[in-house]
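Notebook p. 47: complex prediction with benzoic acid.
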Amino acid sequence: MRLFHAPASPFVRKVMVLLHEAGAADRVTLVPASGNPLDPGSMPLDRNPLGKIPALERDDGPTLYDSRVICRYLDDVLHAGLYPPAPHLWDTLVLEATADGIADAAVLMRYEEHVRPEASRSAEWVEAQWSKIDRALTAVEGRWTSHLAGPVDMGQIALGCALGYLDFRQPHRDWRATRPVLAGWWAGFARRPALMATHPG
Ligand code: BEZ
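Predicted complex, C-alpha cells below:
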C-alpha cells in the first residue's frame, strides 16, 4: 500500500498513529505529497479528485481517501481494534468527528493566515474558526473525560492529532488554561510511542 503523506497534516498523522499502534508502519510506503485549496501541488488528482491528503493507494482496490475512511479500512484489515463494537462505537465515532472538526478548523486557519493572498485575509474569519475550536474543546472537557480514561480508540487518537496540530500551528493560543483535564490527558497520551513517532515538526 502507498500513502500520500505530508508530516504536518493532522489527518495523515491519524493514519500513521493507527499504523504504529497496530505495529504495521512497515506495511505502507510513504509518498510525499503537497496541496492546498489554491494549488493541488503534487497530490495526484486521479487518486483523489478533491486533491486532499491523506489518500491510500491499495494493492487490491481503488484508492481510499478521507482519513476516517482510511482509518476504518486499516483497522479492519489489520485487526487493530481501535473501533469498538456498537454501542460504544457511536461514542468513538462522535469523538473522532469532533476531533476532526477541530483539526479541520485549525487547518483552515493556517490556510487563511499563510496561503490566502495577504490582501484577502480576514482576521474575523480566523477568529470564527477559533471559536468553533474553543467550543469543541470545552465540550470535550465537559463531556468526554470518562471516555478519555478508557481503552485507546480512534476517537482518542484523532483528538491527540488535533491537539498536537494546535500546539504545532497555534502555540500562542492557550487552550489548556481552562481545560485542566484535557491538558493532563494530552500530556500523558502524547508520550505514547505511536504519537512520539509521528510528531508533525
Ligand atoms: C500544514 O502545514 O499545516 C498542513 C500541511 C498539510 C495538510 C494540512 C496542514
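Notes: Helices lie at 10-21, 67-78, 88-114, 123-143, 145-148, 154-169, 180-189, 193-196. The two ends are 25 Å apart (CA to CA).
Next step: compare against the earlier run before touching the bench.
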